[in-house]
C-alpha cells in the first residue's frame, strides 16, 4: 500500500513538473512515450466496433434459451461489450441465428438482416442453423449460409453459453482484422478439402493448386492468429 502511494505521489510530482515546463531531456521523452499510443484510424475503429457489438433481440428455437443466458451474471457477456440486445435491426451490429431456420422463416430472417446497417455480422449458433442439424427434411433450410452470409458457425445441439462466448470472441478477433486461421491454414493442410459429391475419385492437381491459392493470401493478410 505504501509503495502504491509513493508511486502515485511520484507521478503527481512528474505531472506537476510537466505542467510547469520543468521536465526536460530524457525525462520528458520518457513521460511522453509512456502516455502516447499510435495506431491507424482503421485499427481504432475496428477496436471500438469489436468491443461494442450490439446483438439483435432475435431467437429462432431451443438454442435461443442458451443465447439468453449469455447475458446473465453467470456468463456475463457484458465483459465483452455485447450485453445490450437491440430491439430494432437498425440499431444492431450482429444477428445470432439461434435455432433452426424453416423455409417459411428464411425470407423473414433475410429481411431482418437486410434492415441492419453496415457493417454487420452473423453468427450461426448450433447444428440446425449451421447445417439443418437433425432436421434433414423439406421444411428446414440446410444451413443459413444458403441465403445469407455467415461469419461464425458454432457447433453443438445446443451449444452451451460458453461455446457461444467462445464463438463471439472469435467474431471479435475477426472484426479487429485478426481472424483466427482455420486448421487447414494453421497446419498447411492443402488437399484435405471436402470435394463436391458429384466429383469422383481424388481431386485433380489443378483443384489442389486452386485451393492452395485460395488459402495463401489469408496467411499474409491476417498475420499470426491470436489464439
Ligand atoms: S441445434 Fe439443437 S438446440 Fe439448437 S435449435 Fe437445433 S435442435 Fe434446438
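^ Assign residues to that structure.
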Amino acid at each position: 500500500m505504501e509503495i502504491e502511494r509513493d508511486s502515485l505521489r511520484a507521478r503527481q510530482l512528474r505531472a506537476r513538473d510537466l505542467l510547469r515546463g520543468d521536465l526536460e531531456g530524457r525525462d520528458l521523452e520518457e513521460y511522453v512515450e509512456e502516455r502516447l499510443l499510435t495506431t491507424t484510424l482503421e485499427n481504432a475503429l475496428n477496436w471500438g466496433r469489436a468491443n461494442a457489438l450490439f446483438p439483435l433481440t432475435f431467437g429462432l428455437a431451443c438454442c435461443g434459451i442458451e443465447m439468453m443466458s449469455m447475458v446473465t451474471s453467470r456468463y456475463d457477456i457484458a465483459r465483452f461489450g455485447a450485453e445490450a440486445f437491440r430491439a430494432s435491426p437498425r440499431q444492431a451490429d450482429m444477428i445470432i441465428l439461434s435455432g433452426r431456420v424453416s423455409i417459411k422463416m428464411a425470407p423473414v430472417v433475410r429481411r431482418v438482416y437486410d434492415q441492419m446497417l453496415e457493417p454487420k455480422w452473423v453468427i450461426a449458433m448450433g447444428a440446425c442453423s449451421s447445417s439443418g442439424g437433425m432436421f434433414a427434411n423439406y421444411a428446414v433450410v440446410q444451413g443459413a449460409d444458403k441465403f445469407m452470409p455467415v461469419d461464425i458457425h458454432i457447433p453443438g445441439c445446443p451449444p452451451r453459453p460458453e461455446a457461444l462466448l467462445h464463438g463471439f470472441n472469435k467474431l471479435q478477433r475477426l472484426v479487429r482484422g485478426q481472424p483466427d486461421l482455420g486448421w487447414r491454414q494453421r497446419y498447411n493442410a492443402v488437399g484435405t478439402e471436402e470435394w463436391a459429391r458429384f466429383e469422383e475419385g481424388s481431386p485433380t492437381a489443378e483443384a489442389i493448386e486452386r485451393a492452395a491459392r485460395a488459402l495463401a493470401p489469408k496467411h499474409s493478410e491476417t498475420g499470426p492468429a491470436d489464439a
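Confidence is low (pLDDT under 50) at residues 219-227.
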